[in-house]
Amino acid sequence: MHAEIRPSNIIKGTRTQWLIVTMMGIMLVAVALVVANGRPLATNLWSIRFLQSITRGEAIPAAPAAHRRSSLWQVQAALRAGNTAIALQQVETLPAGSPLAMRAQAELATAQGDWQQAIVRWEEIGDYNSLATAAKINEANGQVDNAYLAYRAAYRLSPQRSIRDLAKFLVTQGSDAEAGSVLYFAIQNHPEATQRIAWLRLLGSVYLTEYPQSSQGEELLTSLLVGDYRDAAIYVQLGRLAYETKGDVDGALRAFAQADRIYPQRNLGAAEAARVLAKEGRFQEADALFKTAAAGQPTSLTRQLAVANNARSAGDYADAEKHYLAILAEFGDTSRVYSELAWLYRLWDQPEQAQDAIDQAVALDSANATTWHRAGQIFQWAGATDRAIDAYRMALQLRPDYAAARKNLDTLAPIGQ
Prior knowledge:
By secondary structure, the protein is an all-alpha fold. The chain is about 75% helix and about 0% strand.
């Protein structure tokens, strides 16, 4: 069970820090304000005394009538102290319908657990940040309805800032159709948005789920073409749809090639085409494209590993080993590379080298459940049953719902006892 994320964890801690920093700023500019605009010295002095009272845990002095934000600050202070009744009294002193009053009402509502009321108030005053925070808190706590309301309110205030979070939330809730609709609308209506490619990637994965046996996803993606370099991402998604939903290898390869004709700098299409060819067992053709993709992004560990992994899948173990060792020389000791190298040695029937490599992988990333599971598989294959059991147990300790590790452990545990 994860500890519940409570509003107080964010509201109390974060706002206390914010308040202290803000009040320190007030102290620094107090004299300047008096000279510049004739603001009463008593108002500035009260701000300083308020800060001192908060930091020392002392009683808050009475505020001068001229201090416009004093009631809001006192509401916040009362809520931090758990004095809801005092906070309510302070809220009632604020001008009805004013932004300060609505902000104070929102904070009071969250303290009382009335998130829906708070969400309404934050949207009315245009407080995007509070809505985004409320959405995350409620999602983490399993309050799906409140999270949905907050995400939607944030989206209404600032679609471009919130679209990705809203869509991801909808996908996690199984609302792929709504997520696709939201993403499609955003992409269509904000063709110049810098986040457009990220939206397209997410939309493509949604379409693979929502329209696996129809051409609707393809038609919708095609309708988003705008005639510039960003179309490359659309052609990548069209290629994925062609292959994953229809098994159309040639259609997928054509789409990937078009992506690289539009935007050759990153070789997005080559990388995708290579993966498709490898899945089809066309390893030699895939090798050329994997190498093209790797050359396009020489600092990408993923692309360099793809070349080695393809050689391993093709059964060219000596060539694969050469690539893995070259990657280690270039990128340094990396758990991910040692893990792949260990699996190569397992396929190559070299148990000692396989165990040495997986030991290196685990030592470099002992908090990775997947690495521990692979270690268990290698130890099990090598006949090191006790070590395999320990590795599977570590994988389950890190990820209790790891079904494959559980199955393997249940098979081995009686043997190791």
